[in-house]
Amino acid sequence: MAAAIPAGAENVQVTRTETRNETFVTQGEATQTALAPIGKGLEIIPLTHPSDLAVATPARFRALIDGKPVPDLDITIVPGGGRFRAASGDMSVKTDAAGEVTVTFPAAGMVWMGASWPRRVETPASPEAKPPMGEGPMAAGEGAPPPAVRAPAPPRRLSYSATYEIAPF
Fold this sequence. Notes:
Low-confidence stretches: none
Number of helices: 1
Mean pLDDT: 86
Order of helices and strands: EEEEEEEEEHEE
Radius of gyration: 21 Å
CATH class of the largest domain: Mainly Beta
Number of strands: 11
Strand order of the largest sheet: 1-11-8-5-6
Shape: globular
Helix content: under 10%
Strand content: 35-45%
CATH architecture of the largest domain: Sandwich
Largest sheet: 5 strands, mixed
């Protein structure tokens, strides 16, 4: 990688991104074997077997980073089939001190679950800061406050997504 950075480059930031995308399928008798954590990156382990996910039945999950529980992790759940839905139906949940969360799904069908770590934070820009293209006085109107600026990217960024099917019973 060092060869790819031009000589004299300043303020170089390197971020390693690790992404996990899982889909669960059960054929025959359900087992726990495929659900065991591997201990690398961000994982959201279903403590309730995916074959047992059903409407109005609490389901438990545990978030791990490198095999250790992740407290206070924001997890987003998005139901499928949104094309003809009046409301999005998205849910946001947060893990507890043990990295666990309980979700009660309100409707049957496919759902997408996703999370990323660490949480991105925005910091207020200084009045002297140059706004990104498409922002600033011309875009926001004269006298508008300076836009927020994202904090520098972390050296390691993790993301997770999974697709589940929620049964109607």
